[in-house]
Design brief:
The protein is of the alpha+beta class and 415 residues long. The protein is built from 14 helices and 21 strands. The two termini are 37 Å apart. The site of flavin-adenine dinucleotide has 38 residues, from helix 1, strand 2, strand 8 and helix 9. Flavin-adenine dinucleotide binds next to helix 1, strand 2, strand 8 and helix 9.
Length: 415
């Protein structure tokens, strides 16, 4: 399948896998990537945050993104259960940099752009090939077993295996490393609409987060290019997915419980059958072991409220690539060496996790918090922008803890 022995085998060609593969191949190592889909297809996760720019810059993709037809995004706006909208949080307010303009993307096109970028960087990409298992010699990963397009099983040795299989989380499931977040047991139902009402000018591409009237669920509204809007609801697993009614009916019922959204969708046409994702918050106990490393959703996924999934995929891909290159050069492929990037990364995840818990605390809202603590506005926008890696945003959590129940940090790896 690959003409020469591999230094690194990446399983999965989403944002995490493409980033890790690109940055290792650029340093001259032999990298192979297996992606189970033959063609790019729909994926949820369409809203980016400003600090994805830093990785795009490193990957040399900023120019392509700027020239793309992806909808530009400058801000996020929150609507309370009474239907009242906050002032938009413009990213340029605290960070007047070109990264303050980010994008709302169709993931099929966005993931293809990153994967093609990886090929241009020398990664050997095989599409339509599913990794079935990771091969271990003792506790050391030594390659993978995959099903070739012909249907034949093939074994591919590699010095390092990167698990970038997303929520499939091949290695973490096999090793029993996944820890779930009982407090964040949610379900999401989502679809696309054409012809919804959009805001004007700079606000056209804003992500809107709207709580339902009952306050037990929230919607995202993500305007995409071509007059299409992505709309999804997130709520408690037991309530939104409870007994009775199919997903479409539940989706429509939830929309009726959110008047500002209903008003935006009046006259719009639903152009995709609803899709469902559930129980999606978890984290692996370890990020790396001998010969293996986890990136993106294959390591952890936190509730989608702040659109952080792709950022975390890119950043872990980037960090893993640096650790792998260092480990290959030093001849040290231990878990400690391959997971050396985890410190800053996990600190950033912890900041997001605290913000997620604050959002779901019924006694907390950002308007009251910022009124009482105006000095925290910069920190809040930093977090909404994804500026959480080594940025000192932790200072907002002392005051926040006075108004919301925040989680204790878990041991490293399980955040
Ligand atoms: C409801 C919901 C809403 C979300 N909204 C947002 C948002 O607005 N913004 C945001 O940034 N994030 C969002 N996310 C999160 C985002 O979708 C993910 O965090 C992101 O896609 C992770 O990237 P990844 O590369 O780790 O995994 P993925 O994007 O899932 O990529 C994994 C790749 O691996 C391939 N693969 C899987 N198994 C195998 C195998 N065995 N062999 C070979 N290939 C395999 C898959 O085909 C896929 O291409 C959302 C998530 C959910 C559940």
């Amino acid at each position: 399948m690959f003409p020469e022995p591999l230094d690194v085998l990446v399983a999965g060609g989403g944002p995490a896998g493409s980033t890790a593969a690109s940055l290792v191949a650029r340093r001259g190592y032999r990298v192979g990537l297996l992606e189970r889909e033959r063609r790019p297809r729909f994926k949820v996760g369409e809203s980016l945050v400003p600090h994805t720019w830093d990785t795009f810059d490193r990957l040399g993709l900023v120019g392509r993104l700027k020239r793309s037809h992806f909808q530009k995004k400058h801000s996020v706006q929150f609507f309370s259960s009474s239907g009242r909208g906050s002032a938009p949080f413009y990213f340029s307010e605290t960070d007047p940099h070109e990264r303050s303009t980010t994008w709302q993307v169709r993931r099929s096109e966005f993931d293809a752009l990153l994967l093609e970028g990886a090929e241009e960087n020398g990664v050997r990409v095989q599409r339509g090939v599913q990794v079935q298992d990771v091969l271990f010699d003792g506790d050391r990963a030594v390659g993978v077993r995959a099903r070739a397009r012909s249907g034949a099983a093939v074994e591919i040795p590699a010095r390092v295996v990167v698990d970038a299989t997303g929520r499939r989380a091949l290695i973490a499931r096999r090793l029993g490393l996944l820890v779930s977040e009982p407090y964040l047991r949610k379900v999401s139902i989502f679809s696309h609409f054409r012809g919804a009402r959009r805001d004007d000018g700079k606000d056209e591409g804003a992500t809107l987060i709207l709580r339902t009237r009952r306050g037990d669920a929230w919607f995202w509204v993500i305007p995409l290019a071509g007059d299409v809007v992505s709309v999804g609801v997130v709520g408690e697993l037991d309530r939104l997915a409870g007994p009775g009614g199919d997903a479409q009916t539940r989706f429509e019922m939830a929309i009726r419980d959110c008047p500002p959204l209903e008003e935006r969708l009046a006259g719009a046409e639903q152009v995709m059958p609803v899709r469902v994702a559930q129980d999606f918050s978890y984290c692996a106990e370890r990020i790396a072991g001998p010969g293996w490393v986890l990136v993106g959703d294959a390591f952890a996924f936190l509730d989608p409220i702040y659109s952080t999934g792709v950022l975390l995929a890119l950043r872990s891909g980037e960090g893993a690539a640096d650790s792998i290159c260092h480990g290959l050069a030093a001849g040290d492929l231990s878990g400690e060496a391959l997971g050396a990037f985890a410190g800053d990364f996990i600190a950033g995840m912890r900041a997001f996790r605290k913000m997620v818990y604050a959002f779901y605390d019924r006694d907390f809202n950002f308007a009251d918090f910022l009124k009482a603590n105006p000095e925290c506005r910069q920190g809040v926008i930093d977090i909404l922008s994804g500026n959480v890696f080594g940025s000192g945003v932790e200072s907002i959590f002392g005051p926040m803890e006075q108004m919301a129940r925040l989680p204790a940090d878990r041991s490293v790896g399980a955040v």
